[in-house]
Design brief:
320 residues; alpha/beta; Cobalt-precorrin-4 Transmethylase, domain 1; Rossmann fold; four-stranded parallel beta sheet; 16 strands; 26% strand; binds FE3-S4 cluster
């Protein structure tokens, strides 16, 4: 972790008796160090999607994203001021507009509809998701079954399923494998954000149901896990921890849970207004991290606010 700020005030209180003789030197330090986790904020796929939207805006496009581009109201608000709006279905796109496919990806049918209606389509599907889509599509073309480990209601899974609809099964865990039929040379892949152990447990269960060879390809993206590991290693060292992220962002809520295991004063906040100064009284070290949809400008703003609070607080350590 790196210190992002070091609120430091030194007050020298020299006491003189007569002439120049120094009887005591009292130095009061006011210190509140803000430490940021080694991994935080935008993941590769989200950063790329935002950059692609910004490029389209720079070209003068009227940009409409299919579903919210990211789970962060502040960043969505910023993009809205540049004219970016959200649609819920391809039918809402108009000729002359640019449609954006977000990082989760969509089914080939949805993409085709967007291409038919929009003047331009910006495909911001995360390359890690594209890889899962291609693997599923290829296995289906070889008439093999595809087992995808994930949440069937998640947009990423809906998109992947669309690449092999007649050959795919989406299962959450081992228990759901029991309901599957015999599987023909199955391919096992995963939603990019699931737990590794769950994936391998399902893969083992699939092998027991397979006719022919089972191909297991771990398609889990490490971004979520890296953020959690970094937060976990910092949480034991700090007196308070702020997790910046949307209240509806599942990866931000998970970060909060990870920090709470070791740091009782862990808070999920969306903006600097939610910092309660009283929570920081007496804190020497404050941790900071952010979910994968939290933009850097917001992290910097909140880091700065913590720095200001640190300077103002009465966290005094007297050295005599
Ligand atoms: Fe892509 Fe991983 Fe982010 S799959 S969208 S880089 S969490």
């Amino acid at each position: 972790m790196k210190p992002i700020s070091f609120a430091f005030n030194q007050i020298s209180d020299n006491i003189f008796t007569g002439g120049l003789e120094i009887l005591s030197l009292r130095v009061i330090y006011k210190i509140m160090e803000v430490l940021i986790a080694d991994e935080y904020g935008f993941c590769f796929g989200v950063e790329r999607a935002v950059e692609m939207v910004e490029e389209a805006l720079a070209e003068g496009d009227t940009v409409r994203t299919l579903g919210p581009l990211i789970h962060n109201d502040q960043e969505m608000g910023r993009l809205a001021t540049h004219g970016v709006s959200t649609i819920n279905a391809p039918v809402q796109i108009q000729r002359g507009e640019t449609a954006v496919i977000r990082a989760h990806g969509v089914t080939p049918q949805v993409e085709a509809e967007l291409r038919e209606k929009a003047s331009k389509v910006v495909d911001a599907t995360c390359p890690f998701v594209t890889k899962v889509q291609k693997l599923a599509s290829r296995a289906a073309a070889q008439d093999r079954h595809v087992v995808v480990v994930g949440n069937p209601d998640h947009p990423e899974m809906i998109g992947v399923f669309g690449y092999a609809p007649k050959h795919s099964f989406i299962v959450r865990d081992v228990a759901e494998v029991a309901a599957l039929p015999r599987l023909k040379n199955p391919l096992v892949v995963s939603q990019t954000t699931i737990k590794l152990q769950n994936f391998y447990d399902v893969a083992e269960a699939v092998k027991a149901k397979a006719d022919g060879e089972t191909q297991v390809v771990n398609t889990i993206c490490s971004a979520t896990r890296d953020r959690q590991d970094a937060a976990r290693s910092l949480a034991g060292e700090v007196d308070a921890f702020y997790i910046i992220g949307g209240r509806h962002s599942s990866n931000s809520r998970k970060l909060l849970a990870v920090c709470q295991e070791q740091c009782e004063k862990s808070f999920l906040i969306e903006t600097e207004d939610e910092i309660n100064v009283e929570d920081l009284r007496g804190a020497r070290k404050v941790g900071l991290t952010a979910g994968a949809s939290t933009p850097n400008w917001l992290i910097e703003k909140i880091g700065k606010r913590l720095e200001e609070i640190g300077i103002g607080l009465d966290n005094e350590m007297a050295v005599t």
